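HUMAN:
Just now I want nothing more than another pair of eyes on a protein record. I would be glad if you read both lines and explained how they fit together. I have put the entry right below:
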Amino acid sequence: MTLLILSDSNVVTRVALWSLVPSIIAFVFVVFVFYRSRREATIRQKEAELKQQLAEVEMKALRAQMNPHFIFNCLNSIYCFLEKQDTAKAGDYLLKFSHLIRTVLENSTHREVSLPEDLTTLHLYIQMEQMRMNQRFDYTISTDEKLDESSVLVPPLIIQPFVENSIWHGLNNKKERGNITIHISKENDMLRYLVEDNGEERKDSETFNESAIKKKSLGMSITRERLDVLNKTKNAKADFRISDIRDAQGNYKGKRIELWIPVQTID
């Protein structure tokens, strides 16, 4: 009789447990749906924040490239050519200036441009600086022969702040003839820019005025922000490194800048 009671009790327990299964499944489903909704909402919020950050950084980059200081120097150079009655140089400089302004503004609407387009803009900028400095420095821009330039996309003028620093803070006060070399190559899944100059060694605290120091820091800061956003959106490891070039005796010979960004190609 006792065994029968125990058996009946086990049956009742099993039935009670099985009757809870639908409720448990429903509860788990509700929790899953709630968790998934919260997760998707969080992802959408992060994507919106990243897009906002990207837009802000792109606008900062545009303002840095088109800053009033640069425009003032360009107009001042045109005025100097006209004052010397060198209308040919003034006209050439003005044409390059207008072309550069138009190109920068057009490229500002794109997150990436083709590498040849970007290098054309960089050529324009450097040629204007050559004219401003009375052709006191030379430059070369080359790409690795294995690199298919036409298929590569890059952020507009990502290398320009480094070239500008080489010219203004390395070559501007150099007595001998200056030189800048820019080489672009592909290393695995990264695009590598190498910029080298033979400029003078300078200490910011001794050489540059406050506005020049702030401008240099601002350019590097904006470039760092652009790379950070690029790393987030492309899950990459974009970075840059600045180092001195020295001979075997330790004598300063110039600056070297290395910049890595992920390779992006035209689909």
Notes: Residues 2-65 form the longest helix (64 residues). The longest strand covers residues 252-262.
